[in-house]
Amino acid sequence: MNVNVLAFGIVKDIFGKSSISLDIDGTTTADLKDSLERQYPRLKQLSSYMVAVNNEYAQDQCVLTEHDEIAIIPPVSGG
């Protein structure tokens, strides 16, 4: 399945652009994370990151479709 993934913060630097098109094996958020981490190993170095699907944070078992808006949200710090 081919999906479009938006990147924010440090993830944009890791991808080298603000969005990517990615072919994933499987249909869940966990499958997406596995594909992303294989293609962009620096993602594993982040302490954590979240996946948002259609403007809502998604759990690993969330089922994706090609028409979903998917975003990778890096850890946020601040005061």
How would you characterize the overall build of this protein?
- A hairpin with a 2-residue loop joins β3 and β4 (56-57).
- With 79 residues, the chain is of the alpha+beta class.
- The chain starts with a strand and ends in a 6-residue tail after the last strand.
- Strands 2-1-5-3-4 form a five-stranded mixed beta sheet.
- It has helices at residues 10-15, 29-39, and strands at 2-7, 19-23, 50-53, 56-57, 70-73.
- It has one domain (2-73): Beta-grasp domain (Ubiquitin-like (UB roll), Roll), CATH 3.10.20.30.
Shape call: globular
Helicity, as a percent range: 10-25%
Strand order, largest beta sheet: 2-1-5-3-4
Q: Roughly what fraction of the amino acids lie in strands?
A: 25-35%
Defining traits:
globular; 79 residues; Ubiquitin-like (UB roll); single chain; alpha+beta
